[in-house]
Amino acid sequence: MADGKKGGGSAPPLSGVAPRLGDLLRAPTGPVDLSAIDTAGTPGFTGAGKADAKSLAKPIGRQLAELQEMLYAEGRAGGRRSLLLVLQGMDTAGKGGTVKHVLGLVSPMGVHYHGFGKPTVEEREHHFLWRVRRQLPPPGIIGVFDRSHYEDVLVVRVLHLVPDEEWSGRYDVINRFEAELAGSTRIVKCFLHISADEQRNRLRSRLDDPAKYWKYNPDDVTERTFWADYQRAYSDVLDRCNTEAAPWYVVPADHKWYRDWAISQLLGEQLRAMALSWPAAADWDPDQERARLDGSKP
């Protein structure tokens, strides 16, 4: 795991954190008008821009790594808690970039990543949450969902893959599932809010750079024709599944640097709220073990 200051107590506050960024980014209660939320906004960031955000990356990363290691240590010591980061957003919104630049700040030993694509034949034979439950983070681990169970009230709705009465009944199922999960897992759900113009620019950059051809999918252009439908579907998700047990955060994502900074802060706030600390020695005495070590011979 990453190096950190050892000893009792919890980790200090993250450097550069605006007080309660989660309060600023929390999705409003009731119907959500995504067109009224600025995709290029930078709520809570008090610096001058990208350069300032970049200068904060190392100190933020060190403290995130310590918090994550505390969670990992707690799990190894018999604790049952974990954290799940859910990333949703339109294509090119930055789900993969978030995983690389934010989760890359902590040890991979303590992270379980899973990207949800089109369900396999086996997965379609089961309840829509079956494949999700199989990927939940074990104790001590930060889980990351790149897309998630919400695809079953987004893509299936927009593309009419199941009858309306089937997908419309899933909001309540999801809320019950997350309420159950929240008993042991802190859930952090982030909607990466990108504009249609910025998406066009990012898709264009993939076409203009042969090194990015592998990222390009012609279906992404087809999906753009359903933009308004997806915005309505996301608005309903943010309205129907924004609970106290598992709230939604709307993260403006036109600026990649802000997206990464904001999610780093959210993770820090959530981990600190867990009041993590280093586990005490369980069934051995440190002084006795020092004496044994000093007297031992190889």
Distance between the termini: 27 Å
Q: Structural class per helix/strand content?
A: alpha/beta
Name the overall outline: globular
Radius of gyration: 21 Å
Q: What percentage of the residues does DSSP assign to strands (E)? A: 5-15%
How many DSSP E strands? 5
Strand order across the largest sheet: 2-3-1-4-5
Series of H and E elements: HHEHEHHEHHHEHHHEHH
Which stretches of 5+ consecutive residues score pLDDT under 50?
Answer: 1-10
Q: What's this model, at a glance?
A:
This protein is 43% helix and 11% strand.
Could you give the topology of this structure?
Layout: H1 21-25, H2 50-76, E1 82-89, H3 95-101, E2 111-115, H4 121-124, H5 130-133, E3 142-146, H6 155-158, H7 164-167, H8 170-181, E4 185-193, H9 196-208, H10 218-224, H11 227-240, E5 248-252, H12 256-273, H13 286-295
Parallel strand pairs: 1-3, 1-4, 2-3, 4-5
